[in-house]
Amino acid sequence: MGxxxxxxxxxxxxxxxxxxxxxxxxxxxFLISFMLEKEVAKFDADEEKELKLIQExxxxxxxxxxxxx
Length: 69
Known about the structure:
Elements: H1 2-8, H2 16-35, H3 37-57
């Protein structure tokens, strides 16, 4: 959109010269997050499995015994 406005010779408010690059940057960030959505979900599932394995590998705590008199 920015290149069309820039090379088209439209007379716009100079504030658009600042706003258009921000739009392109946010669109790029949206595309990156959209592409990585499945990978992040897979990573979260793998981390959850690892945490469960770690918790299961620890021995159960011993029951507290009454102190000797």
